[in-house]
TrEMBL record:
Coiled-coil intervals: none
Keywords: PQQ biosynthesis
UniProt cross-references to InterPro entries, sorted A to Z: PQQ_synth_PqqA
Metabolic or biological pathway: Cofactor biosynthesis; pyrroloquinoline quinone biosynthesis
Numbered residues of crosslink Pyrroloquinoline quinone (Glu-Tyr): 36-40
Annotated function: Required for coenzyme pyrroloquinoline quinone (PQQ) biosynthesis. PQQ is probably formed by cross-linking a specific glutamate to a specific tyrosine residue and excising these residues from the peptide.
A matching Pfam family: PqqA
Family: Belongs to the PqqA family.
Protein name (record): Coenzyme PQQ synthesis protein A
Amino acid sequence: MPIADPGPTIKRPPHPMEDIMAWKKPRVTEVSLALEINSYACAEIG
């Protein structure tokens, strides 16, 4: 079954706030803390 043609696209002028509100990809940074786990909590299921 063919997909219906959505028709012509309507181009709108850019909004002045569009650049300010644009989503920016977050930067992920790994920080080494050089910590050691010396005990574990007992997890009881039930």
